[in-house]
């Protein structure tokens, strides 16, 4: 469903990603772990189509289409979703209007009928229950005045509403208390099925206590230096990234 081939990316002549290759098949959950500055958020931003990066080499294929050649909204229409590490505030944009506009934009692009207000409201109520969100948030501007946890919960609500086929979550667990983490995890597990793929980007193993990954990767200094099952995350939690840095990385590679 998502295939990254030898992706090399720079910002202002500084190379951040140094040949990342990764394949996520239908129904799989992959986790990428790594220290600060390793290139995890850069990878997420590139997949989503954020400007400001120089693509030096490589491809990102979504269902066989190189999405580096299409706009972010077209990527969304194809089923791609990015949950941001730091969700933006949209002053003046009503949360319910934003969600309705987003889903109808995708439905229109796919040749489906748009939802009317009543149909969408019923649809949305069910999703809000899954993330335990107060209906009052629908009347507020998108993320404006939200706490960090509320912003992350709103991101998961957007994911549940849009029902994407390929989900990238960039440190969705950061700054969450245990109760919020469980709610976020439940939202992810709700959408998990054999046709939907996830890429979870995280520093810590604790999210993976609730969302069990099929594959775990370690990204250090712009390179994937190790790949394994979920036991790799436990090893990182226990021993840190020291054995995967610099000259030590080659001796710690796992397949």
UniProtKB/TrEMBL annotation:
The record lists the organism as Wohlfahrtiimonas larvae
- ABC transporter domain spans which residues? 2-246
Q: Which UniProt keywords apply?
A: ATP-binding, Nucleotide-binding
Q: Which domain of life is it from?
A: Bacteria
Homology family: Belongs to the ABC transporter superfamily. Ycf16 family.
PROSITE patterns from the entry?
ABC_TRANSPORTER_1, ABC_TRANSPORTER_2
Q: What is any Pfam family matched here?
A: ABC_tran
Show the PANTHER family listed in the entry: ABC TRANSPORTER I FAMILY MEMBER 6, CHLOROPLASTIC
**InterPro entries, per the entry:** AAA+_ATPase (IPR003593), ABC_transporter-like_ATP-bd (IPR003439), ABC_transporter-like_CS (IPR017871), FeS-cluster_ATPase_SufC (IPR010230), P-loop_NTPase (IPR027417)
- Which CDD domains does this UniProt record tie to the protein? ABC_FeS_Assembly (cd03217)
> Lineage of the native species?
Bacteria, Pseudomonadati, Pseudomonadota, Gammaproteobacteria, Cardiobacteriales
From the Swiss-Prot or TrEMBL record, give the protein name: Fe-S cluster assembly ATPase SufC
């Amino acid at each position: 469903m998502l295939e990254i081939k030898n992706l090399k990316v720079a910002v202002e002549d500084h190379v951040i990603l140094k040949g990342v290759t990764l394949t996520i098949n239908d129904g799989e959950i992959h986790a990428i772990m790594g220290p600060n500055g390793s290139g995890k958020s850069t990878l997420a931003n590139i997949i989503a189509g954020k400007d400001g990066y120089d693509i030096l080499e490589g491809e990102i294929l979504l269902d066989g289409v190189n999405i580096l050649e299409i706009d972010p909204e077209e990527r969304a229409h194809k089923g791609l979703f990015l949950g941001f590490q730091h969700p933006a505030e949209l002053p003046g944009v009503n949360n319910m209007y934003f969600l309705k506009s987003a889903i109808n934009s995708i439905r229109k692009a796919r040749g489906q009928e748009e939802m009317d207000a009543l149909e969408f409201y019923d649809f949305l109520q069910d999703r809000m229950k899954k993330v335990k969100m107060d209906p009052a948030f629908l009347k507020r501007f998108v993320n404006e005045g939200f706490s960090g946890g509320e912003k992350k919960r709103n991101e998961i609500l957007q994911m549940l509403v849009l029902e994407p086929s390929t989900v990238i979550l960039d440190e969705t667990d950061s700054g969450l208390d245990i109760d919020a983490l469980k709610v976020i995890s439940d939202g992810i597990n709700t959408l998990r099925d054999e046709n939907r793929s996830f890429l979870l980007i995280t520093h810590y193993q604790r999210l993976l206590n609730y969302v069990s990954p099929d594959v775990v990767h370690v990204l250090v200094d712009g390179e994937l230096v190790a790949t394994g099952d979920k036991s790799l995350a436990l090893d990182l939690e226990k021993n840190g990234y020291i054995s995967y840095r610099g000259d030590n990385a080659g001796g710690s590679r796992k397949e």
